[in-house]
Amino acid sequence: MDLMISNLLPCLAIVLVLASCSSMRSPVVPGAKPKDHGAIGATEGPAWKDGSLYFTDGKHINRMAPDGKTTVFRHNASNGLLFDKEGRLIACESGLRRVTRTEKDGSITVLADRFEGKRFNSPNDLCMDSKGRIYFTDPRYGSREGMEIGETRIGMYGAASKFGSTIAFVEGVYRIDSPGKVTRIQCDRTERPNGILISPDDHYLYIADNNNNTHGGSRKLLRYTLDKKGDITGPPKVIFDWKDGRGPDGMKMDSAGRIYVAAGTNKATEFENTRFKAGCYILSPSGRLLDFIPVAPDECCNCAFGGKNGKTLFITSGGHLWSVPLK
User: Fold this and answer.
1) Which residues, including other chains, have CB under 8 Å from residue 185's CB and lie 6 or more apart?
2) Helix (H, G, I), strand (E, B) or coil at 316
3) Residue 102 maps to which CATH number?
4) Which of 47, 75, 90, 181 pairs with 55 at a CA distance of 20 to 30 A?
5) Domain limits at 210?
């Protein structure tokens, strides 16, 4: 047995080297250009299952069939989507301020709609670890009216009083262990969490910290380390910084550990410039920019793998759906 292991070690070393080299190369097919599938209302999502792409248009979950025809799959769901191992659709319903699961019979199970009795802000994006636990972000863009989750911050008087404390609204990251069992993950250095991703080994949690409607707000991709319980163990590492441009939104990771981040804008606003164009930024595990896939018309929001053998990258941007082949 020892001899067999010793003979395998050189092969294992070669595999590890090849995997490392793969993670440092662009995965885009040489010469490939993004294909525009039209202004079909593809703003968020997306998720692939059984030859169909599911995405949201801000009001509904839509399904694009293999023949390219698009129909409404579900009403009242407007943001991040994923399918669990049983093929059930998990959705962030920002407008209804909850996370749900569409069962195989079409019924809806509410997985989380409150934390400590208070309604969420507007669940945005989600991911799932190998144990089936769901992690999701709960920012609030635009009006802050109706926000309920807050924490008391003690002022100069050293106690919570009329003059000595303030209530700060919390834009948090949460973990759903089972329907109704929700834990807030303490990401103290995250300003406004948007996209979220967990590594296949459950060791790292990536958060797109996108406080992009605030002067000087964070526009960074952060990586936190998780323990076996799914809790964060320390401060984050900055993987990439979009500085004063439009920051990161949805993201995915491939088998080589490369991270695909939807970010950037083609139209400057009061709070962000066009320094980083709209598109998909492909990063190595350490944060090196390997490639960039430009899309139009504006505000690249999310991406997903699909197509034959999962080797097509779908991108939502400005209501358009784009696709590009990968190696």
Assistant:
1) 135, 172, 173, 174, 175, 205, 230, 231, 232
2) strand
3) 2.120.10.30
4) 181
5) 28-325
Torsion on CA atoms 112, 118, 119, 120, rounded to nearest 10: -80
Answer yes or no: are the C-beta atoms of 292 and 278 closer than 8 Å. no
Taking only the tens place, the pLDDT of each residue in 54-100 is: 999 988 899 999 999 999 998 877 799 999 999 999 999 999 999 99
Whether 198 is in a domain gets the answer: yes
Q: What is the pLDDT of residues 161-203, one digit of tens each?
A: 454 556 789 999 999 999 999 999 988 889 999 999 999 999 9
pLDDT band per the 50, 70, 90 thresholds, residue 117: very high
**Helix, strand, or coil here: 23?**
coil
- The dihedral built from the CA positions of residue 299, 304, 308 and 312, taken in this order, carries a sign that is positive
pLDDT at 4: 45
- In this model, does residue 5 exceed pLDDT 70? no
The separation between CA 322 and the C-alpha centre of its own chain, rounded to angstroms, equals: 18
Looking at the structure of the chain, the number of domains it has is: 1
**Distance, C-alpha 253 to centroid of its chain:** 10
180 domain residue, yes or no = yes
Query: What is the reported pLDDT for 20?
Result: 58
| Whole-prediction pTM | 0.89
Asked whether the predicted pLDDT for residue 130 surpasses 90, the reply is yes
Residues 6 or more apart whose CB falls under 8 angstroms from that of 105 comprise none
Decide: 75 and 56 in contact? Cβ < 8 Å. Answer: no
Alpha helices by DSSP H, the chain? 2-22
In a domain, 41, yes or no: yes
Residue bearing tokens 């995965």 = 27
Does the residue 234 lie in any domain?
yes
Reference 21, options 259, 325, 284, 310; nearest CA is 284
3-state helix, strand, coil in the chain (%, to 5): 5, 45, 45
Give 36's contacts (C-beta < 8 A, 6+ positions apart): 296, 320, 321, 322
